[in-house]
Design brief:
heterodimer; A: 82 residues; mainly alpha; 71% helix; 0% strand; B: 643 residues; two-stranded antiparallel ribbon; two-stranded antiparallel sheet; elongated
Chain lengths: 82, 643
Amino acid sequence: MIIIIKQNAIMVLLGIELLLNAANLNLIAFNQLQPELLTGQMFALFVIVVAVSEAAVGLAIVLCVYKHHQTSVLSELNELKE
Amino acid sequence: MEGIATFDLLTGMVLLTPLASCLMCLLTSERYSWLVTIIAPALLLVSASLSVFLFFTTPANTSHLIGLAWFQAGQYTFNGNIELNRLSVLMMPLITVISFLVHLYSIGYMAGDNGMRRYFAMLGFFTFSMLGIVLFDNLLMIFVFWELVGFSSYMLIGHWLEKPAAAKAAQKAFIFNRIGDAGFLVGLMIVWANTQSFDLSNLLHLPEIYSWQTAASLCVFCGVVGKSAQLPLFTWLPDAMEGPTPVSALIHAATMVAAGVFLLARVFPLFTTDALNIVAVTGILTALFAAVCALNQFDIKKILAYSTISQLGLMVTAVGVGSENAAMLHLVTHAFFKACLFLGAGSVIHALRQARYQAHENFDVRDIRNLGGLQKKLPVTFFTFLIAGASLAGVPFFSGFISKDSITTSVWYWSGDTFSWRWLALISVFAVSAITVLYTFRMVWSVFFAKENKPNLSITETPWIMRIPLILLSASSIWIIVSLSPFDASGWFTIQVGDLQHSNLVTLLSSGVVVLALLAAWFMNATKDKPVNSITFLQHAFGLDLFYEKVVGQSATRLAALTETTDRKWIDGFLHVTAYTQVSFAHVIAWFDKYIIDGIVDAMAWISGVVGSFTRSFQGGKIQLYIFWAVAGLIIFLFFELI
């Protein structure tokens, strides 16, 4: 919901992090179906690592965009459309 | 082989020099038009001397074919072969020599004329086409040249195109010739349909006599009737006298009208007995008919014209009785003496025209009632005219006597011992000879001997350039030109012409007829001052022209009017209705096209546009919206999947 509604790119990134966390919770919770394998936990850890790097790259891009366009509002970044 | 090649070259030169003359006359600019009076006769002199050389060097009875492929149509090859045989070798010098003399004469006669270039060009063209008829071996080729001489005749008759009578006469000659040529064309079709060949070298040596030959030869004869002015198509020739007199001498006396007789002699083997009978009857009727008409004319040129028709009739008769050699002999002698007569008449006209101009008088110089007593004033003309006239009349010791005698002899043998309709023909031939003497005497008498009509005119003899042709032509009318014996045709000349029959009895008879007719003519003319009166009905050729005008002409006009109305009312009306229907139908189709078909296309475009803009609305370039729709789609998908 945050992803869709928020105007600012940073907030959208934040939404994506929350989304990934929710997915992690789901992975761990559903690991209970096969508790001896710990696949869910392993996958959650993997997701956390990816999420961190993704957040770093995402924030760097947002920073670059902000530097260039003086804005980080998504609806205003429509250079390709025009 | 060397000699043969020379013959080819010489023949080609004889044929092409007159054409070159025609072209050069046309290319000469109007400013230097006097040049044509030198160029044209000089080129013709070349052609004439070459053809005379060919005449004397070609061995008798040769038949030398110069092969020229013309064109190919499908599987058939058309050849334009030139054949040198005794007929063509005889005709070539005849045409070119007379043409040359006429060229010479025309320099004097046509002096000061505006259309000199056109005149000499057409003379050259005529000579070329006439040589074409004589030389080519292919019937189709002959037909082409046949039409070309008709064309040049048309051009030359109408040379003085500002004279309405001349223009009319030219058209008349053209149309009458077309009527005959239509028959000729049909004849060509019959020949082609039956033999698939136009080459005379094939046609004249058919293995047997076929029934189609009668029809084919009669159709060819139809062309001859037109060209050689036979009954019933002869009335164009007297009218053609509206042309310049040298033209009449060349075309309407010596060569073109004789082309018909030449053609008859050329395709003689094609003729069947039935066809020949018709030819003979036509010929003798024409001869008699025209001789009677000639006796009733007052126009000096028309007398000569009718006499030409009559002599041509005799030649056609000779072919009809199976003696094409006699016809050819008479053709040659007739060409010389008739050309001389015409040129003589021309010089009378020329001299009187000048005298009339000086005296500021106005009278018809061609009317023999206005002439008379010219033998002192025009001595050369008189003398040559007299010789040629004697030859025409068939007086012994002249060439005309010998050739006419050979025709009479062939008719004599043809008519047989027992009485049949052929005897009537024989009697008619004698009658024609007698009438010929009568009208010739009447003409010569009233022009040269009778009391002078207008003594105050100062008439001077024509220039030398006009006298030389006259003298040469009249010299060719003496018997020596044909054979050494004045009563027997078989001499050096007949080697070229072919064998002729001879009968002492006939010679004696025809001499007797001529002498008697001379006496009769003397009594009829010499006792009066004026020429013998004429019967108007006969003067107008038995009203044949009137008949053509009233019956043929008017009915043709009426038919034309009828067809015009039909065309305009019915055919055009039908066309208009069809057109209107089509246009209305087209409007309906246009409406249908505009609103239905275009409408469908437009609707499709509109629908796809709407769909497009609808789908476009999902892709606003907003990434969050995409996610929303993706999630929404997923939810919908799951919703349907899970329930």
